[in-house]
Amino acid sequence: MPAARPRSIALLLFMLLAAFAAWAWRAGAITVPDRWNPWAPLRIDDTPNLLTRYKLERASTDRDACRTALAQAGMRLSPLEDRSTGAGCGFDHAYLVERSSVGVGTPFALSCRTALSLAMWERHVLQDAAQSHLGTRVARIEHLGSYACRNLYGRAEGRRSRHATADALDIAGFVLEDGRRVRVLGDWPPPAAQAGAPTGHGDAQAEAAFLRAVHEGACAHFDAVLGPDYNAAHADHFHFDRGGGRICR
């Protein structure tokens, strides 16, 4: 019982301190930088911190906030009319992505929240990984498409894929500024390399490390990130999506 009293006093002091800090902040006596202010809007260029995911989720559920945040990305976008193309298919508040921060080849449709995650991933993961592992930048993404009214794995029955709501993008590879191509099929690190055993020449190891980094880094910005380690259906691409359960494989 004696030990409980100090804990109660400490809890009370903490609550009083928190209440005072909240009052002082709202009164303007304490200035909190926007990147550490949970109520400030998401800014794509801000270095990610513990509040980034919360701000991303909040922007994802607010049309105006999502549109405002996405405008910072420097993407070339065309808004798409909301539409329903079948049972469980269609999209709401989506854009045709003609160019992200890099080239994309054939334009594709993405919901605002997924386009916002793509912008965050490119800004804070993709180019840093390319510079770190390959000594150059990514010039273009090679993709396998986004919106498609279909079930998971194209099955005749079952749950709709996140592709059916323009909440998913499949990425097969990357073209670098120096002309090199890095593809998921062929350049993804084999099990021996993932375990730390050296395999292949230096370029192959660097490309494998780059793919591993962009895959793992996507997990902070998307809800589901799937690749070759998940199953055979993803042997040739990364699947990034928003709106479903959280998984990183």
Protein architecture, described:
This protein is of the alpha+beta class and 249 residues long. It is built from 7 helices and 11 strands. Strands 6, 7, 8, 9, 10 and 11 form a 6-stranded mixed β-sheet that branches. Strands 1-4-5 form a 3-stranded antiparallel β-sheet. Strand 4 (94-99) and strand 5 (108-111) form a beta hairpin. Helix 3 runs parallel beside helix 4 and helix 4 (112-134) runs antiparallel to helix 7 (202-218). The radius of gyration is 22 Å and the shape is globular. The termini are far apart.
List the main descriptive attributes of the protein structure presented here:
three-stranded antiparallel beta sheet, six-stranded mixed beta sheet, 11 strands, alpha+beta, globular, 7 helices
Strand content: 15-25%
The termini sit apart by 48 Å
Backbone shape: globular
How can the largest sheet be summarized?
A: 6 strands, mixed
Share of helix among residues? Answer: 25-40%
- Secondary-structure element order, N to C: HHHEEEEEHEEEHHHEEE
Structural category: alpha+beta
Mean pLDDT: 88
Number of helices: 7
Rg, rounded, reads 22 Å
Low-confidence stretches: none
Please provide the count of β strands: 11
